[in-house]
Amino acid sequence: MLDFFERLDKFFKYKELNDNKVTLQAGISNGIIGKGRKRGSLSLDNISKILYTYPELNANWLLTGTGEMVNIPDGAMILNPHVLKSDNAVDRQSIPLYSVEATAGLVNLFDSNQTPSVIDTIKIPNLPKCDGAVFVMGDSMYPLLKSGDIVAYKQIQNFKDGMFWGEMYLISVEVDGEEYVSVKFVQKSDLGDDYIKLVSQNTYHQPKDIHLSKVRALAIVKASIRLNSMS
């Protein structure tokens, strides 16, 4: 389990914050957070200032690691864009929502000769260009993604040279002659340039090195969408 400052840093990264920004915004004395890191503790008064300044931060998660990092109001939809520096936002676009199961896998979904049925369309302004969206299955990226969340993606044609290391990908690989579809972080492999390492957010899932010849389809995740309530 992450300790207090690891959880705090995770929230800082999520909000694109740093110690200096938080010090100014929360009214904390200069250098207190840095000193707290060295001591391994932060006073309750300063923790309270942080929680008051960022009400979306789940106090229970910050202090104990229990629950979700961010407080989500009932019925809210949470959108997490995954934007590269090279991305250009599109003011208006209709992103088709597909079913991977209905198209019998990601390879068929990406096949230009196929015409997959569209479940619905998603319209969110100022997202990077996306080719489509699908529902997430499984818990390998929990808690970042949950089963039933939606990811919007941009298809990658060049598996070897079109990779942005450390980013999140929708990927199809061949395992014992069958297609295995998942969402993973893709990192460089210690086995060489012909391999990639698939890494889960959920630490119960071990990283796995895959030969590039086993990759059947690949798309970089541009946004994730979570519906907190279906009612």
TrEMBL record:
Pfam name, any one: Peptidase_S24
Keywords associated with the record: DNA-binding, Transcription, Transcription regulation
GO MF annotation, one: DNA binding
Residue intervals of the Peptidase S24/S26A/S26B/S26C domain: 96-219
InterPro entries given in the database record: LexA-like (IPR039418), LexA/Signal_pep-like_sf (IPR036286), Peptidase_S24_S26A/B/C (IPR015927)
Protein name stated in the entry: Transcriptional regulator
Lineage: Bacteria, Pseudomonadati, Bacteroidota, Cytophagia, Cytophagales
